[in-house]
Amino acid sequence: MTDEKRETAIDRKLLDLLVCPLTKGPLVYDPEKSELISKSAHLAYPVRDGIPIMLPSEARAIED
């Protein structure tokens, strides 16, 4: 694993605990975009320096 990937990777245990703050639904990690995807809310929450930013105001709207 490269240093860059190590910085943006999310701990599996943390990912299992996190839910979408709006829907309380599950999140899926997209390592290429470094985002946590909430399919139910149609939002992608950014992960910066390995820290999930779980604010709806910081999320990007996505289409299915």
Give the tally of β-strands.
5
Rg, Å, rounded: 11 Å
List the quaternary state of the chains: single chain
Share of residues in helices:
10-25%
Euclidean distance between termini CA atoms: 30 Å
The CATH class assignment is Mainly Beta
What's this entry about, in short?
The chain has helices spanning 3-8, 12-17; strands spanning 28-30, 35-38, 43-48, 51-52, 60-61. With 64 residues, it is α+β, with helices and mostly antiparallel strands.
Provide a descriptive summary of the structure in words.
- The protein has helices at residues 3-8, 12-17; strands at 28-30, 35-38, 43-48, 51-52, 60-61.
- With 64 residues, the protein is an alpha+beta fold.
- The protein is globular and about 25 Å long.
Break the fold down into its secondary structure elements and pairings:
Blueprint: H1 3-8, H2 12-17, E1 28-30, E2 35-38, E3 43-48, E4 51-52, E5 60-61
Antiparallel strand pairs: 1-2, 2-3, 3-4, 3-5
From the structure above, extract its key features.
single chain; 64 residues; alpha+beta; N-terminal domain of TfIIb; five-stranded antiparallel sheet; 5 strands; 27% strand; globular
